[in-house]
Automatic annotation (TrEMBL), chain B:
NCBIfam families reported in the protein's UniProt record: PA_CoA_Oxy2
GO MF terms, alphabetically ordered: phenylacetyl-CoA 1,2-epoxidase activity
Keyword entries, A-Z: Oxidoreductase
Stored Pfam families: PaaB
EC identifiers of the protein: 1.14.13.149
Class in the EC hierarchy, top level: oxidoreductase
Entries under InterPro entries matching the protein: PaaB, PaaB_sf
Protein name: 1,2-phenylacetyl-CoA epoxidase subunit B
């Protein structure tokens, strides 16, 4: 206050007020700066039909896996694991919202329109994500394949020439890195735990592994999206490197879980042909929105 | 003397969690959790206690590794400073530039 002239009553009062406001600065939760719920370079960006089709695939992968993981809430073996799986489900739901919002801009549909008002044949998720939770080992094996693939995918997609996809991927890659770590930690512990935990881990890997190849199949959409979307086949080398390292650390060799007579699934999820597991899950996920259209709480 | 978390029959051991909110601040005890081992304890701490950008650093330690003072001995432990005002540095001016003294 040294720059205030003596007897300048108004200035003194103003300075006191300013100081008082500073000292007693109110803290209000309303003023908490929340980050944007939807990620994207520009909320008004509109996707082309091809970009929307691509975003729909990835958005459905995240949405369906999120819904699956949500089942564990209140059912996980320990409270701490309940939180871990719930956190992962919420991360994935965030990815799904951003991707479905962007996909919907091409056809004037909202993220909720896409999540709740499409039927089974209109979903574009790969079969891996719709597989049942099974036991804890199945959930971990599914999560390990999913997160290892997503890590490669989002790392590549963050370099996309499409600014919105690049921004979504850049945020997601940090989150899926944690999802992968979670799955790796549990894979190591189940594989190296008791005879029973190892047996279950191997059964789970045997059951989920056939849904891996579908994630790496190129099709005509990727030809049209050169530079926008990485070719799925280009992600395989990075995936295999991580996968092999995890198995080596877990003391698992491929012949422990890959059965010579069980090949890879033909998995037509990208074209709307789904396993028998998706329909019942969608019925549960969509019933509220369809029974009470426009309901809010 | 009892040790926190030293309860027979619990599946996973108990850990105490310490979170540092910012550079320059200390790690502060925020709570406890169960975990199968040290590595998972750190991850569980991240999931349970840093959900709203609370921290830049997390410590976990097995509760059984902590030795506590004995509540029955708190007179001998904590009431001795009474009347020893000369132990308080009350005759110094606090420097305005040091917010977290």
């Amino acid at each position: 206050m040294s720059d205030i002239k003596p007897r300048d009553a108004a200035a003194v009062a103003a300075a006191y007020e300013a100081e008082a406001a500073d000292v007693h600065g109110d803290v209000s939760v309303d003023e908490l700066a929340l980050s944007a719920e939807l990620t994207g370079a520009d909320a008004s960006a509109t996707a082309s039909d091809d970009v929307a089709a691509y975003a729909l695939r990835l958005g459905d992968d995240a949405l369906i896996l999120s819904q699956r993981l949500g089942w564990w809430i209140s059912r996980a073996p320990e409270l701490e694991e309940d939180m871990a799986l719930g956190n992962i489900a919420l991360d994935l739901l965030g990815h799904a919202r951003s991707l479905l919002h962007y996909a919907g801009t091409a056809s004037g549909r909202s993220e909720d329109d896409l999540a709740y008002w499409r039927d089974e044949h209109e979903f574009r998720c790969a079969w891996l994500f719709e597989q049942p939770n099974g036991d804890f080992a199945h959930t971990i094996a599914r999560g390990l394949i999913a997160a290892t693939w997503m890590q490669e995918l989002y790392t590549a997609l963050s370099q996309s020439t499409d600014a919105t996809l690049a921004a979504i991927a850049a945020k997601a890659v940090k989150e899926v890195a944690y999802h992968r770590d979670h799955a790796v930690q549990w894979t190591l512990r189940l594989a190296g735990g008791t005879d029973e935990s190892r047996r279950r881990m191997l059964v789970a890997l045997a059951d989920l592994w056939p849904y891996t190849d579908e994630l790496f199949r190129d099709d005509a959409l990727h030809d049209r999206l050169e530079g926008v979307a990485p070719r799925p086949s280009s992600l395989r080398a990075g995936f295999d490197e991580v996968w092999d390292a995890v198995l080596a650390e877990a003391g698992i060799v491929e012949s422990d879980f890959v059965h010579p007579r069980i090949g890879q699934s033909s998995g037509g999820g990208r074209h709307g042909n789904h396993s028998t597991h998706l329909g019942p899950m969608l019925a549960e996920m969509q019933v509220l929105a369809r029974r009470h259209p426009g309901a809010t709480w | 003397m009892s040790t926190p978390g030293d309860v027979a029959g619990e599946g996973w051991p108990l850990y105490e969690v310490f979170v540092r909110a910012n550079r320059g601040l200390s790690h502060v005890h925020v709570g406890s959790l169960h975990a199968p081992d040290d590595d998972m304890a750190l991850r569980n701490a991240r999931d349970l206690y840093t959900r709203r950008n609370e921290g830049v650093s997390v410590w976990v330690v097995r509760s059984s590794a902590i030795t506590t003072s004995d509540p029955d001995q708190k007179g001998a432990f904590f009431e001795s400073p009474a009347g020893k005002n000369y132990r308080h540095a009350k005759y110094y001016e606090k420097s305005a530039e040091v917010p977290h003294l």
